[in-house]
Amino acid sequence: MLKPRRKRWPWLLAGLVVLGVTYMLRPAPPKGRPADPPYLTFFLVDGLSQEVFQRELEAGRLPNFSRLISEGLYVEDGIAAFPSMTGYGFYPFITGQDAVRSGVLGLRWFRREAPEGNFRAYVGRTNVMMNEDFAAEPRTLFECFPGQHSFSVNSYANRGVVRNEKLGWGFSMAKYQEKYPLIRFLGGTPWLGPRFIPDWYGAETQVLELALEDLADKPKVQWVTFASPDGRNHIVGTDDTYVKLVRHIDSLIGRYREESQRLGQEEHRLYAVISDHGVTDVHKNVDLRVALGTAGLRAWRGEATHLRQSRLNDPISTWADTDVVLAVNGNTMNYVYLRNPAAQGEQAWRTQPAPGTAFQLPPHQGGAPVDVVKVLREAEGVELVVTRADAAGQVRVFSRTGEGRITPSEGGLSYSCEGEDPLGYAQGEASRVLCDGRPRSDRDWLKATHALGFPDAVVRLHRLMSAPDVADLVVTAALGYDLAADYELVVGNYRGGHGGLRADQLRVPYILSGPGVPMGQRLATARAEDIGATVLRLAGCPPAEQRAGEDLIPAVATPAPP
Question: SS3 for 393-425, per residue?
Answer without folding.
Answer: CCEEEECCCEEEEEEEECCEEEEEEEECCCCCH
